Each structure stands twice: as structure tokens, then as C-alpha cells.
Amino acid sequence: MTLKAKLLATLAGKNRGLLLKPGEAQVVLDVVDRLEEINPTPTPTEALDLLEGDWRLLYTTSTSLLNIDLPPFTRLGQVYQCLRPSTSKIYNIAEIIGLPYLDGLVATAAKFQAISEKRVDVKFQRWIVGLQGLLEYQSPAELIEQIEADKRFTALDIPIDESNQDNWLDFTYLDEDLRICRGHKGNLFVLSKV
Q1: Which residue numbers delimit the Plastid lipid-associated protein/fibrillin conserved domain (predicted)?
Q2: Long-range contacts for 42-45 (Cβ within 8 Å, ≥24 apart)?
Q3: CA angle, 148 as apex, 159 and 151 as ends, to 5°?
């Protein structure tokens, strides 16, 4: 079994890491470390064709993201990070499953700029929180189209001051359908291309 296959098998059915059994988190970290050593894309910030697209979160160590999954009222649905290198934009979209007709959405829009072969500087520009129905949410691609058209939503739609931000993201592994990143707060993200 390849390292990539081992990682995907370990993460299958683990709800982005929330359901890992004792010892499995260390297995994930060990496999991730080994995959990063053999990264097939040595300069990921220059591989725009590989970065482009919608990526679904498979695993993270980000407690702020995982804490959205707080039963009994809400549950974390799919989480996406959508990269648009042609416009230097990153969109984070977390679907929230709630009571009937009360499914929610948390989204951020940010711009990014490559500052090294592996690192991008990220400046968050907009934060959107609301009910999927009021936002007329259908898919990440449609939401991004509306954000790019500068639509204002019936939701919390808040501009973010980017002047004092010091956010970055390192792309530590990148191939056609798997991306591993490490963020400025030490969080690990494993994503697959949709």
C-alpha cells in the first residue's frame, strides 16, 4: 500500500479527525510527515494548474473548525477550500447541518500572494454567516460566483480589515488530487480535489 493510500484509508469515515481512535492521530501525522518528504511538486505556489479548484477537507487539527461540530444543535457538514489562482483568491466554506430548514453556512473570502515556493500570505477580506436557504446556497462554485460578483447576502456579511493580518499557509504536499497544508497557527489540513 502506498503512503497516500494508507493516509486515505486511515482517514476514511473519521469525520475530518473527530472520530480517530487513540493512536490513529499519530499514524496520520507520521504518514503526512513521510508524504511531505516526497512531495511530487517541489514548488507548489508555481503549480497553479494543480492548485486551482475546489478542495474538500479530509482532516484537520484546527479546533476552531472542528468545534463547529457541537451536537445536539449543529453538526459540521462538508468543508471546502476553493482556490482561484487566476484572481489570487481563497474561499473557505463550511456547511453546517442544523435543525430542519436551519442548515447554515460559514464562509470566508481572502486574497493570497505567493511569498516563497511553498508559502502564501493570506489576507481575509470578507466573512459570511447565514442560513443556507436565505443565502440560496446550492454549491461552493455558485456561492463563489456570487461573492465575486460582489453580491451582498441576507446574512452576516462582514468586511474584514486586512491591515493587521499575519496569516499564511504552506503547501507541503501537492499532486493531482491531494493537498496537504500547514497554517500559521500550526494547524494541519489534508484536502482532496472535488
Answers
A1: 1-192
A2: 42/117, 43/117, 43/118, 44/117, 44/118, 44/171, 44/172, 44/174, 45/114, 45/116, 45/117, 45/118, 45/119, 45/120, 45/171
A3: 65
* pTM of model > 0.85: yes
Grid cell 468545534 in the structure block, residue: 67
| Cα angle: 62, vertex 177, 174; to 5 degrees | 70
How many domains are contained in the chain?
1
Report yes or no: 98 and 121 within 8 Å, Cβ to Cβ: no
The cell numbers describing 129, all together, are 454567516
User: Residue 104: helix, strand or coil by DSSP?
Assistant: strand
CA angle 58/144/63 to nearest 5° reads: 35
Read off the pLDDT of residues 59-109 as tens digits, 9 standing for 90 and up. 999 988 888 776 677 788 999 999 999 999 999 999 999 877 889 999 999
Cell numbers found for residue 110 = 481572502
What is the span of the domain harbouring residue 9?
3-193
